[in-house]
Structure formats: structure tokens, C-alpha cells
Design brief:
The chain is mainly beta. It has two helices and twelve strands. Strands 5, 6, 7, 8 and 9 form a five-stranded antiparallel sheet that branches. Strands 1-2-3-4 form a four-stranded antiparallel sheet, with no helix packed on it. The longest helix has 19 residues.
Length: about 170
């Protein structure tokens, strides 16, 4: 009976946490347990005045939060394990008040610090509308990812892709 009650409270707590904070679920520290990543915006008006920092927090308090600036919140992505280190990597696509050009930031946890896995990937909203996600594992080359980026070329926005070595 204690097991059933404990299971119920564990499930309810996780469900309640998920409802309270929008975020993503993943194994970001490689311990085999899932944790939530979620965001909180600091000092940013509707017009993007102020510091406009977005902090990414984790339900496991042993995983240190990190800050992206400028960002008026944004969208988190669980990119799974791009670099084969046994931990899910995080993508963050920031919101902003102007322009359709935004980078996708890609981070991996090394030891206890979040570090960029690749340079920020320049994207235009048309790339997202065309469902051309900016990063994925290269199925033909181990240790590589395919990056799709938006570029301005010949008076138009083009999407180019390239295979990039990581690690």
C-alpha cells in the first residue's frame, strides 16, 4: 500500500510540476533519470527593453542553470544525444521583438557546465515554416551533425546544409 501511495504522489508531483512550468523532459545529466528543463525571463518588457535574459533551469537542482541573452523567453528542444556522450543535448530558439532572424543555440553538459556544442545556427522564420530543423545527427558520419542554416544570397533567403564534426 505504501508503494502505491508513494507512486501516486511521485506521479502527481511530476504531473503538477509539468503543468506549472512549461518545458521539456530529458536525461540531461546522463544518470538514467528524466528531468525537466524550463525557462524564466528576467527583466524584459513587451518591447524588449531591459536585460532580456532567459535562464534555463532544471528540476534536478544538481544541474546548474544557465543564461541566454538577449532572449525574451523562447522554445526549448530536447535534441537527444547528438555527441554520443550518454546525455541529452538542449536546443534553445529565443523569442525577440524584431526580425525573423534568430539563432538556434545548441548546448551540451560537460562535467557540471553547459557549453555550446556548435556555434549558434543562424535561422530565418521561413526555415522553421518549411520544417527544416537546424540540426540533426549525420546518419552517414559518426561524430558529425548536419546543420541547416539560413543565409541571404542572391537577394533571397536560402537554406544551406553542411556536415560538421563535433567533439
Amino acid at each position: 500500500m505504501k508503494t502505491i501511495i508513494l507512486s501516486f504522489f511521485t506521479f502527481f508531483s511530476t504531473f503538477h510540476f509539468a503543468q506549472e512550468k512549461e518545458g521539456i523532459l530529458g536525461d540531461f545529466n546522463g544518470d538514467g533519470k528524466s528531468e525537466y528543463a524550463y525557462t524564466k525571463v528576467n527583466d524584459c518588457s513587451d518591447e524588449c527593453d531591459g536585460k532580456c535574459e532567459t535562464v534555463i533551469y532544471f528540476s534536478d537542482k544538481n544541474i546548474k542553470p544557465f543564461t541566454i541573452s538577449p532572449a525574451k523567453n523562447g522554445t526549448l528542444y530536447n535534441l537527444k544525444d547528438l555527441n554520443n556522450d550518454g546525455k541529452d543535448d538542449i536546443g534553445f530558439y529565443p523569442d525577440w521583438c524584431t526580425s525573423c532572424w534568430h539563432p538556434l543555440y545548441v548546448y551540451t553538459l560537460k562535467k557540471d557546465k553547459w557549453e555550446p556544442l556548435v556555434s549558434p545556427i543562424s535561422t530565418h522564420c521561413s526555415q522553421w515554416e518549411d520544417e527544416k530543423f537546424p540540426i540533426k545527427k549525420d546518419p552517414k558520419k559518426k561524430g558529425y551533425v548536419i546543420i541547416m542554416t539560413s543565409v541571404w544570397k542572391d537577394d533571397d533567403i536560402k537554406i544551406i546544409s553542411k556536415s560538421v564534426k563535433i567533439n
